[in-house]
Design brief:
- By secondary structure, the chain is mostly helical.
- Helix content is about 75%, strand content about 0%.
- The chain has 2 domains: about 350 residues, Growth Hormone, Chain: A, CATH 1.20.1250; about 55 residues, no CATH class.
- The protein has 24 helices and 2 strands.
- Strands 1-2 form a two-stranded antiparallel sheet.
- Strand 1 and strand 2 form a beta hairpin.
- Helix 14 runs antiparallel to helix 19.
- The longest helix is centred in the C-terminal third of the chain and has 37 residues.
- The protein is globular.
Length: about 550
């Protein structure tokens, strides 16, 4: 009888407009997927037009993720106090501003000028996306308190749906109709208008913690010093990159010093605010694991289309990206079935997902045919499908006292990690591995076509990849018509792509170990259970 009541509560939510709010949140995250996908498909155009290195493209892609942290963390901190409606209005404004900044890049702009426009346009786009997710995640967790894994996965099915829509638009408008990158990028404004209309005039419920009347400091105690340490470390690295971008004349040491000083100050503030609460060790582990989720899921997504397009053909890379996104979209509607009918707990789902993602990335690194890529990327997509929303569900299930704060911080950690480690790290790895391959196999060609701009990762590890303009021009030439130098560059780049994917697979391998340890822990204490605050709408239904 209890199970039946749980399903009834899950089906209808706790308010009459729960379904419309769910769809509004779905549309909001769809915007992020559309913009992310289109940007990924036009990165090669940016490299060819402006001569960006892989590391520079990684930094622009990273800005499209790290800016997310400002929206989701700040939004999560104030959501229970100012209300969700104000945050939706702010996000709408940031989306429009990001479109203006990105699309006003002057014709014939220099590399330095174009970099600034595209970097900050991507950053503002991410701020808007983060603000919306700071609304959507806690809102859906509140609307469906007895089936969070299922409904948060449905909410986040909008991300791959947006990826499919964006990649499809890029394929039709770019590859076939040969529209410019600006015309393609402008399409994300349409779903922006859509979510604005869906949220318009809708009342929204409060989180369990807000309804219970918990104060800000009480909401933060489970996060405490340990959880905040994870946030402050990724923020310190992020601010170091921001300082380097805004003040390019600053030394790496000075930029890092400013970033770490900001992170340290924030940590002290949290410690004082929580009366030096250490925090829950489980939430600390979840935060660390979600940093890995962001690096492997979003970091890889920002490069996978470009990588598979290099290994096979650009058109096939685009189709494969659509394929993996479609797999994710379909499977995210199955999380409730897996949990309720198969009986696999959210932690069990994560163990299986991380294992499959690790195996899948290794298979992708050895693909030689389109059919083989379909199978390998399908396995990888099967793994990564459940990472993000299931992690949010676990945090919401186990730590309801944190209100919107913990899951917003978790989302921020994932996005910052993707922007600081994932996107730039994979771009750097590709430059390094490709450069090493060409230098080893054809040193004379490498000396002639070595990139003039060094690639660095986290301010260190300087390496010189292949000149992006030379490599881009070589890829435009049919294989049978390439010069020996062009063939050598393309082959070295392909091998670098394969090595990058193998290195990337170590991240889900580490995640699988963490999730397995958590799985064993929950088994030892009697199994995974949802925690509710007494006296709220989320209390267990009467039997």
């Amino acid at each position: 009888m209890s199970e039946v009541l749980d399903y009834q509560v899950s089906d209808v939510g706790i308010v009459s407009n729960a379904r419309r709010l769910l769809f509004a949140g779905f549309m909001a995250i769809l915007v992020a997927g559309v913009g992310f996908s289109i940007r990924g498909s036009i990165m090669a155009d940016w490299a060819r037009i402006y001569g960006f290195t892989g590391a520079q493209l990684g930094m622009i892609a990273g800005a499209g993720l790290t800016g997310f942290c400002f929206g989701i963390i700040i939004g999560g901190l104030v959501a229970d106090k100012v209300g969700y409606g104000i945050l939706v209005v702010a996000a709408f404004g940031f989306h429009i501003l990001s479109a203006v900044v990105t699309l006003i890049v002057p014709a014939g702009a220099s590399q330095a000028a174009a970099y600034q426009y595209l970097y900050w346009g991507s950053f503002l786009f991410a701020v808007a996306n983060g603000t919306l997710e700071g609304v959507a995640n806690p809102l859906v967790a509140t609307l469906f308190p007895h089936n969070r894994t299922h409904f948060l996965n449905i909410l986040h099915a909008s991300w791959p749906a947006g990826l499919v829509l964006g990649a499809g638009l890029a394929f039709v408008l770019g590859a076939n109709l040969h529209w410019g990158w600006k015309a393609q990028m402008a399409f994300f404004i349409l779903p922006v208008i859509g979510y604005g209309l869906l949220f318009l005039g809708q009342p929204m419920p409060k989180s369990e913690a807000a309804e219970k009347g918990l104060k800000f400091g009480e909401m933060f105690k489970d996060i405490g010093i340990m959880g905040s340490l994870v946030v402050c470390v990724v923020l310190a690295l992020f601010f170091s990159g921001i300082v380097s971008t805004v003040f390019p004349t600053f030394s790496t040491l000075k930029a890092n010093g400013i970033g770490w000083a900001i992170g340290g100050i924030l940590l002290v503030i949290v410690a004082i605010m929580t009366n030096f609460s250490i925090g829950a060790w489980l939430l600390f582990v979840l935060f660390v694991a979600h940093a890995l989720v962001g690096a492997v899921e979003l970091g890889t997504d920002s490069w996978i289309q470009n990588i598979t397009g290099n290994i096979l053909t650009p058109a096939q890379g685009n189709l494969l990206f659509i394929w993996t996104s479609a797999v994710m979209f379909s499977l995210r509607f199955c999380a409730g079935f897996i949990e309720k009918k198969i009986g696999l707990s959210p932690i069990g789902i994560l163990v299986v997902a991380a294992t499959l993602a690790c195996i899948g990335l290794n298979f992708v690194s050895v693909i030689t045919t389109f059919a083989g890529a379909i199978l390998a990327l399908g396995l990888y997509a099967l793994g990564k499908t459940f990472f993000w929303p299931t992690m949010l569900a676990v945090a919401a299930d186990r730590f309801p006292k944190t209100g919107a704060i913990a899951i917003s911080m978790m989302g921020g950690i994932g996005m910052i990690s993707a922007g600081v480690f994932g996107g730039p790290g994979l771009g750097y790895a590709n430059d390094r591995f490709a450069g090493q391959q060409l230098s080893r196999n054809n040193p004379a060609i490498y000396d002639q076509h070595k990139s003039a701009t060094p690639s660095k990762f986290l301010g260190v590890g300087e390496t010189y990849g292949i000149d992006p303009k030379s490599l881009g021009d070589a890829k435009l030439v049919p294989p049978s018509q390439r010069t020996p130098a062009q063939t050598a560059m393309v082959e070295a780049d392909q091998q670098g792509n394969r090595m990058t994917l193998r290195a990337d697979s170590l991240i889900p391998a580490a995640m699988a170990v963490i999730y397995l340890m958590l799985f064993i822990y929950f088994k030892a204490i009697g199994g995974y259970k949802v925690v509710h605050l007494a006296g709220t709408h989320a209390a267990e239904p009467a039997h």
